Amino acid sequence: MGVRPFGFAAAILLAATLEIVPLSTPSIPAASASCPAAEVVFARGREEPPGVGYIGSAFVSALQSKVQVPVGAYGVDYPADVDPTKGASDMSAHVQSMAKHCPNTREVLGGYSLGAISADLVVALANPGFGFNNPLPPGADQHVAAVALFGNGTRRVLGPVPEFSPAFAGKTIDQCAPGDPICSSG
């Protein structure tokens, strides 16, 4: 499997986002010392081994090299077979748990291929739908610093995420390599 050259460019964009968006909010209570300042929550591509996957690993490494804060990583726990809803449910549950236990941690959601579709469900659906039953509650978007999608199959049907998810529009990159049959029309 070839790795697409998205990680570095996306990391630069997200590093800029993390510098613009404050890493803590004064009205949020203090978090545990074990909480990272930022965390990448990444859903790997179809049939990749558990963890953040190849693209996710490159993305996390590139982001860590560009920001001056500790960056954690969470590999979304799902089978990465054909159903993105289990990934979306785990991603949403993790973001909600981090918001409760590490309220100052800025979450960077991401995914590659099928994992990008899982992330789409999390950022696009405010109500249960399409088999996804754990949407983010109101206000949870305030814990999300950025969204990074790579090879996103939903893009072919609905367009890039910023066009159909206004709450995340200003903090989302939706990368598709020219000619990629998964995310482009040609």
From TrEMBL:
GO terms for molecular function: carboxylic ester hydrolase activity. Coiled coil: none annotated. Pfam families: Cutinase. Keywords: Disulfide bond, Hydrolase, Serine esterase. InterPro entries: AB_hydrolase_fold (IPR029058), Cutinase/axe (IPR000675). SUPFAM superfamilies: alpha/beta-Hydrolases. Belongs to the cutinase family. This is Cutinase.
